[in-house]
Design a protein that fits this description.
By secondary structure, the chain is of the alpha+beta class. Helices cover 31% and strands 28% of the residues. The chain has three domains: 2-147, D-tyrosyl-trna(Tyr) Deacylase, Chain: A (3-Layer(bba) Sandwich); 194-245 and 283-339 and 346-397 and 409-472, Bira Bifunctional Protein, Domain 2 (BirA Bifunctional Protein, domain 2, 2-Layer Sandwich); 490-602, 3-Layer(aba) Sandwich (Rossmann fold), CATH 3.40.50.800.
């Protein structure tokens, strides 16, 4: 027996004409009906169902259980022959449906039944919650097969709840994750508003390249470099020694570890041939770091340690899936690998990595909803470790169970924000890898002088550079939707201070101010164009410049600067006070030199 259980806000049907000679008369079944807050049980009766009395009973138990958990006030039993091609004879099907209806009434439910063997018109308004659409398969002599057996939800108190038994009141962002990942419900389309910010700051597709490749104008280039440097600072803050490396972006598939790793990755590979050899463009920094570190002499005293590279990475994404700054064929991944003695040490370090990943997304005003991909055996054997991870999140996480031994990792966490269009978007990640050290022959010497393979943590603490910037842009879009002034973090802003001299007379003073501000490590420019003050201020606002200084006679005489602070308004500050604010706001973040000429007047106009 197959059942599709839909929790409907409203359900209506009407039997129009007989589809079978054996169609039943309206004896216990209603020709038409209209119901609110109903659990509609679309049922296909299969051969052999009536011969096993437990099939009917188990079907009723499932219907009663789901109706109770979703709060449905009534049940509608609806014959539906489209869930299987192993159909019971009409007489058996009618008898089975009658028994189900009768038993539901005996269990105290308000229950109705649509007639079997009729062409029927129906309309249904499905309620949008995690348990609104469920399926069941009940086999004679077997257990109830549930559609979502590969998923469950873990709560901070350690409870692991099957998808079909989830309580109500789950956080909205987590429901959005369940809808996309488990129930495969597509959100309504639309153009994400962050794309206008990509254009504003110079993130564009490169039309003269393969599709999925981007180019970065001066402002975008600065932002990319700043995020790359910040990713390095984040890696060093985890509390272990970290080595920064660089390498090539293509590898020879004739080498067994490269080929095996590529086969495990899947089918999104950039491959080509040169000099009779099959080459693959790297899809992360793993190849280079592993190929390098296999040649190092490593002692147990060196562990744990990390290797870091901002790697140009290539994935042959499908054309229809490409999204600027989010899903690309070439992107930059600040890959961080941590080499540990064993799984126990890897779990200890992973707790710190987990904290860091959450710390960084919360700094930009967002939070994650997480998917924990793991094996059932790892969860069973390391339940306390997984519980600690979930406790740190403080909210439920989605567990996705993968087959034992299929992957080189035992746990792989995907950290998702829910974007402006209510779609999950993976940003950060980490995984515990127990296979690649042996595959690449990376060894360390333990206390007894024996050679052993380390366990490797893979992580991108803030995600790829583009996806981190995407998260910042999406956060700005959210601020605009709340009616707030959108802004970039000061450390990422291409220009941090703009000076607008009242006239040419004050250009020399503006240059001196700019020299002082720049000497403290901040990016400053001067709008020396022969435009009105109002227009130049508006242009600075359009560019989201955090601090705009208008300098004229009053400022020169008083020694106080007229400063327009984005999102705050006007302030009168001394130069020292302005620099003090800049220092405080950028503390803990990288300082990079500007990628633009200082004078606005000499810049070409670019879109």
């Amino acid at each position: 027996m197959k059942m599709l259980l839909i929790h409907a806000k409203k359900f209506e049907y009407e039997a129009r004409s007989k589809a079978l000679d054996a169609a039943e008369e309206f004896d216990g079944a209603k020709k038409a009906g209209s119901y609110e807050n109903a659990l509609v049980a679309f049922i296909t009766v299969e051969k052999g169902d009536l011969g096993d009395a437990t099939v009917i009973q188990r079907a009723v138990d499932e219907i009663v259980d789901v109706a109770s958990r979703v709060g449905a006030e009534r049940v509608v039993v609806y014959p539906y022959a489209h869930l299987s091609d192993n159909l019971a004879d009409p007489g058996e099907a009618i008898e089975a449906l009658r028994r189900i209806h009768s038993l539901l009434l005996e269990r105290g439910l308000e229950a109705y039944r649509a007639p079997f063997g009729w062409y029927k018109r129906f309309s249904i308004e499905c309620l949008g919650h995690p348990l609104a659409e469920l399926s069941r398969s009940i086999k004679p002599g077997g257990a109830v097969e549930r559609r979502y057996e590969d998923y469950a939800v873990m709560f901070p108190d350690g409870r692991v709840i099957p998808i079909e038994e989830l309580p109500g009141g789950l956080p909205d962002d987590f429901v959005a994750l369940l809808d996309a990942e488990v129930f495969k419900r597509r959100r309504e389309g639309g153009t994400p508003k962050y794309l206008s910010l990509c254009k504003k700051f110079g993130f564009e597709w490169e039309p003269m390249s393969d599709i999925g490749h981007m180019r970065y104008g001066p402002e975008a280039s600065l932002m990319m470099d700043a995020v790359a440097e910040y990713a390095w600072m984040c890696a060093r803050s985890v509390g272990i020694p970290v080595f920064r490396v660089k390498g090539t972006n293509m590898f020879n598939l004739d080498y067994k570890p490269i080929r095996q790793h590529a086969e495990l990755f899947g089918d999104r590979l950039y491959q080509f041939e040169a000099d009779g050899r099959k080459l693959v463009l790297r899809y992360a920094a793993c190849h280079q770091q592993f190929a390098m570190i296999k040649d190092w002499e490593i002692s147990y005293r060196n562990l744990p340690f990390g290797a870091f590279e901002v790697a140009d990475s290539y994935r042959l994404e499908q054309p229809g899936e490409l999204v600027a700054c989010f899903r690309l064929r070439k992107f930059y991944m600040p890959d961080f690998h941590v080499f540990c003695r064993d799984v126990e040490e890897a779990m200890e370090v992973s707790l710190r990595i987990h904290d860091k990943i959450y710390e960084e997304i919360r700094k930009i005003g967002r939070d994650y909803v997480s998917i924990y991909n793991t094996t059932r055996s790892f969860l069973r054997d390391h339940h306390d470790f997984v519980k600690k991870l979930v406790e740190k999140e403080g909210k439920p996480v989605l567990l996705h169970f993968v087959p034992e031994g299929k992957y080189y990792w035992v746990i792989n966490i995907e950290y998702n924000i829910i974007d402006q269009l209510r779609r999950p978007r993976e940003i950060g990640t980490f995984q515990i890898d127990i296979g690649n050290a042996k595959r690449f022959d990376i060894k360390y010497t333990d206390e007894n002088g024996e050679k052993k393979y380390p366990v490797i943590i893979h992580t991108a603490l803030i995600g790829s550079l583009e996806r981190y910037i995407y998260a910042v842009f999406d956060t700005a879009v959210r601020a605009m939707e709340r009616g707030e002034t959108p802004r970039l973090p000061l450390w990422m802003s291409p220009i941090q201070v703009r000076i607008i001299p009242f006239s040419k007379e004050y250009l020399s003073d503006a240059e001196k101010l700019a020299d002082t501000i720049e000497s403290r490590g901040f990016r400053v420019d001067i709008d020396d164009r022969e435009e009105s003050i109002g227009k130049r201020v508006r242009d600075a606002e359009v560019k989201w410049i955090p601090y705009v200084v208008v300098y004229g006679a009053r400022e020169k005489e008083s020694g106080k600067l007229s400063v327009r602070i984005r999102g705050e308004g006007q302030a009168s500050l001394s130069l020292d006070e302005l620099i003090s604010r800049l220092e405080e706001e950028s503390r803990g973040y990288p300082k990079l030199r500007s990628t633009l000429p200082r004078l606005v007047s000499i810049r070409p106009h670019y879109r």
